[in-house]
Design goal:
This protein has about 110 residues and is mainly alpha-helical. The protein has a single domain, classed as Multidrug-efflux Transporter Regulator, Chain: A, Domain 2. Helices cover about 65% and strands about 5% of the residues. It has a two-stranded antiparallel sheet. The longest helix is centred in the C-terminal third of the chain and has 41 residues.
Length: about 110
């Protein structure tokens, strides 16, 4: 709830409402319209407070930084997926190459005498 979060982070509830109004926080709502903050919301709030309090970043700057962080996380996920696909394809190619006889060699392989 907003009062508990405000007390925990030593904020005025209006500050949390402002963060929500400008789109920095998006807590869910209960059926009674009470704001419900998830652990993810609280982590985001900690980033916001670090940027605002410790680094002096204004709300517009915080919004830009948070958007960039989200895009970077998406790009990281895409890169991990790409790396996984490449690894799978390399594995398929390696097993395919191992199954083939070396008949395409430049120098033909000779049979060993027994």
């Amino acid at each position: 709830m907003i009062s508990a979060v405000a007390e925990l982070y030593k904020l005025h509830p209006q500050t949390l409402r402002l963060y929500e109004r400008v789109g920095l926080l998006k807590p869910s709502r209960s059926q009674g319209n009470t704001r419900l903050y998830t652990d993810q919301d609280l982590q985001r709030l900690e980033v916001i407070l670090t940027l605002a309090r410790d680094m002096g970043v204004n709300l517009a700057g915080i919004d830009i930084i948070l958007n960039m962080r989200e895009k970077m996380a998406e790009m990281e996920q895409q890169m991990m997926e790409f790396a996984r696909v490449v690894q799978e394809e390399l594995g398929r190619m390696a097993s395919s190459m191992a199954e083939r006889a070396p008949r395409n060699a430049i120098v033909p392989a000779r049979q060993r005498a027994r």
